[in-house]
Specification:
- With about 300 residues, this protein is of the alpha+beta class.
- The protein has one domain: Ribonuclease Z/Hydroxyacylglutathione hydrolase-like (Metallo-beta-lactamase, Chain A), CATH 3.60.15.
- About 20% of the residues lie in helices and about 30% in strands.
- The protein has 8 helices and 16 strands.
- Strands 1, 2, 3, 4, 5, 6, 9 and 10 form an 8-stranded mixed sheet that branches. Strands 11-12-13-14-15-16 form a 6-stranded mixed sheet. A two-stranded antiparallel ribbon has the order 7-8.
- About 45% of the residues are buried.
Length: about 300
């Protein structure tokens, strides 16, 4: 994406929620070329949603990102999702294979070197959310964040662990190179759908995109934010909550989860940060006709 486009959208990477700091670290951004995720989002349909431009769409094309969030509470530094990763093979998207990107350097430049991360929280265990869990060293996948507890929903983990044991597809490959080394190192904790990570950070069950998808809820100083993972891949799904992603585990459930979630938070001051939202990164939800939209 060229500099003029970057300037037009004024990418936001930091938020403060009470005493908690949230920092976004981008692995890669795309403009268009995401119809394999949201086939309903044609140029004509996207053009109708004028409020998406420029933060979330340009010229009828969707803007999306693969990114992580760091949640710093003062007592804990939590890395939410870890992207695609470097040197990974067998990914379904050709440009995701054998990457050599600067994500870890960018994480350090943001103030968070590897050893500072004490918790890695995974909203779910898809390929573009667990990649930097591991790094290739001397031909072997090893945990990237050896001082961090790695936290995943028990329902989510159990599903993919069982799947990996009985299949040899891409999901099994991802589990084996990005999750199993963490398990073998004794760094994984699994949690329930209503767990708390700290006094200020808890999880919210948001199933559909994956069997046990979780969002991360931050409440501090009377303010609230939610790192929503892939509850929605793009804000256009606020207008059309029934636009389930082609990669959703249960499209009907994900649509219901979105409608329930946006109905709950519409008109509130809760900051919603999407796992793949670019530009402003998120905003407040408001009701708009039969759907919703994001106010940045």
């Amino acid at each position: 994406m060229d500099d003029s486009v970057q300037e037009a959208v004024k990418t936001k990477t930091e938020w403060t929620v009470g005493n908690v700091k949230i920092t976004k670290v981008i692995e890669l951004e795309t403009l268009g070329g995401v119809r394999f995720v949201l086939p309903q989002a044609t140029h004509e349909e996207v053009h109708k949603m004028e409020w998406l431009t420029p933060h979330f769409a340009l010229d009828g094309r969707l803007r999306m990102a693969v990114q992580s969030f760091v949640v710093e509470t003062g007592k804990r530094i939590i890395l939410v999702d870890t992207g695609i990763g470097n040197k990974k093979q067998g990914r379904g998207v050709p440009t995701w294979n054998d990457r050599d990107g600067p994500f870890l350097d960018d994480l350090k430049s943001a103030g968070y070197p590897i050893d500072s991360i004490d918790t890695v929280f995974m909203t779910h265990l898809h390929v573009d959310h667990v990649g930097f869990n591991t790094t290739l060293k001397d031909g072997k996948w090893v945990p990237t964040f050896p001082k961090a507890r790695h936290v995943a929903g028990k329902r989510e983990f159990d599903y993919w662990a069982q799947h990996a044991a009985s299949n040899d597809d891409q999901h099994a490959l991802v589990f084996n190179d990005s999750m199993k080394p963490v398990v073998d190192a004794g760094l994984l904790d699994t949690i329930g759908d209503d767990a708390k990570l700290t006094d200020e950070v808890s999880v919210l069950s948001t199933p559909g995109h994956s069997p046990g998808h979780l969002a991360l809820v931050i409440k501090s100083g009377g303010e609230e934010a939610i790192v929503a993972g892939d509850l929605a891949h793009h804000p256009c799904q606020m207008v059309h909550v029934d636009w389930s992603a082609a990669v959703d585990y249960d499209g009907k459930q994900s649509a219901k989860t979105r409608r329930d979630f946006y109905s709950r938070y519409a008109g509130t001051d809760t900051l919603i940060l999407g796992g793949h939202f670019t530009g402003a990164g998120g905003g407040r939800v408001v009701k708009d006709g039969s759907g919703f939209r994001l106010v940045v």
